[in-house]
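Quick one - inputs below.
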Amino acid sequence: GAVVSQHPSRVICKSGTSVKIECRSLDFQATTMFWYRQFPKQSLMLMATSNEGSKATYEQGVEKDKFLINHASLTLSTLTVTSAHPEDSSFYICSAPDSGTGGPALTQYFGPGTRLLVL
Amino acid sequence: QKEVEQDPGPLSVPEGAIVSLNCTYSNSAFQYFMWYRQYSRKGPELLMYTYSSGNKEDGRFTAQVDKSSKYISLFIRDSQPSDSATYLCAMRHNTNAGKSTFGDGTTLTVKP
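Output:
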């Protein structure tokens, strides 16, 4: 199946710094990518939909100025956590829908995740 | 009340056992139902997806959807230690793959 990569896999930073997470689709183009966060033993919560060539769509309650999303190309989306604080520590996962059949994007391929720890 | 409820477990079974994982939901508009497997510190990987009610089988895995009861299940036959992971159910009412609602996951351990 399709492969989605994320970088870095783990990052530790000081409070107040900004952290950029990259999400790449390695063998297919993705005009749309999704960003999730997952707390321990909890489900994935959709944060935003990243759209190539246009602004990201944020879910209710997600601060767009806090979590900057840039979909620079058909294979790359970045999530920047600005002025990170300890409560931003979480597991961030991106995904890209499978549109290979030309039909509805019924499934999505997830990246391996990025574990962020803010001290 | 959450839209999707999933027993968090943990669930521990001996190798070779049949495993039943379940989710209930409240939104009758859900039409697409998925099961993902997530190993520790990894992203989820899609195991199976079904549309509307019915059964779907893939190797040792069988997914069942009962829309009348708002209940879905994943059965694993002849469970293996490599099946040890967290299993997430997910569902949505349209074709937008990203707009899925996930359960909290059930952690399964298969002991040799």
